[in-house]
Amino acid sequence: MDKEFDILNLLRLQITESIITSKVRELETLIKNEELIQIKKDYNDAKQELDRLEEDYRKLEANRKKIEDKVETNREKVKANQEKLFSGTIGSSKELLNYQEEIKSLENQNEKLEDDEIEIMMKIEQMDEGLSRARDQVNRLEKSLNKIKEDISKDAKEIETKLDAYKKKRKEVMSEIPDEYLEKYNKVKQRKGAISVTVIKNNFCSGCNMEIPTVEAEKIKDPNRIYNCPLCGRLSLIYNEEMDKIKKEVEDLDGVS
Question: Does residue 20 come out as left (phi exceeding 0), alpha (psi in the -120 to 50 range) or beta?
Fold first, then answer.
């Protein structure tokens, strides 16, 4: 019954699926790229710091503008009061004194406001250098982040292209294997994990890497039969040189562009 199909297709399927599993892991590793994760963290930290500095800068500039507007308003009031003083319309010494006191008060306010404005301008000037450094750092990290993303995207596309080729190969190979053997293959895979088919060479099983006892090995002689390893229970084939060619044939798909 085992001769009804090329039993080496089971090995082809096993090798193909092993490579597919490996490619999927490569994709997962790309996604979990430690350098990318670290650069993202550094970028987010730098961006948050830049946002904080820019917000502080905006607040200082808003306060400076508010003071500037207040100073200008006071100057206009002083100018208006001075014009009133020299208009000849003031009717009493008390009214004159009130205008003079208001002018003095406005000038004192402006003196204090201008001192405050100078202090804010000094803080703004001091922040300029820090803001420049923060922006440079964010830009540098953003470029690094984008470069890593581009590289990962390129590598991912290459892996996905190869994955597509191997999935196509798997489909082709599976179409050559009778359903009953595919069922056996999948049952072993469910029990044993990724490796369903092994090769027995020099009485060693490639799946469990154990030496088959001599008594059991004597029963495994026919290269045209599918056995079950007496140690691990996986589907097993007796080694022949054709298997090396099959392995190379499948692995050569990795060169697909």
Answer: alpha
Which of 42, 251, 24 has its CA nearest to residue 148? 42
Q: What would the two tokens of residue 221 be?
A: 């002689």
DSSP 8-state symbol, 213: P
Residues in a beta bridge with 237: 199
pLDDT at 108: 96
Pairing assessment for the beta strands 204-205 and 235-238 based on DSSP bridges: unpaired
In the numeric block, the tokens 């179409």 are attached to 175
Helices (H), the chain: 8-31, 34-85, 93-174, 179-192, 214-217, 242-251
Q: Are 236 and 198 in contact (CB under 8 A)?
A: yes
Residue 58 CA to residue 239 CA, distance in Å, equals: 76
132-184 pLDDT, tens digit each = 999 999 999 999 999 999 999 999 999 999 999 999 999 999 999 999 999 99
Burial of 57-85, coded b for 16+ CB within 10 Å and e otherwise, reads beeeeeebeebeeebeebeebbeebeebe
In this predicted model, what pLDDT tens digit does every residue of 7-21 receive, in sequence order? Answer: 999 999 999 999 999
Q: What pLDDT sits at residue 257?
A: 40
- 78: Cβ–Cβ under 8 A, 6 or more apart, which residues? 103, 106, 107, 110
DSSP string for 6-27: -THHHHHHHHHHHHHHHHHHHH
Per residue in 92-136, pLDDT tens? 889 889 989 999 999 999 999 999 999 999 999 999 999 999 999
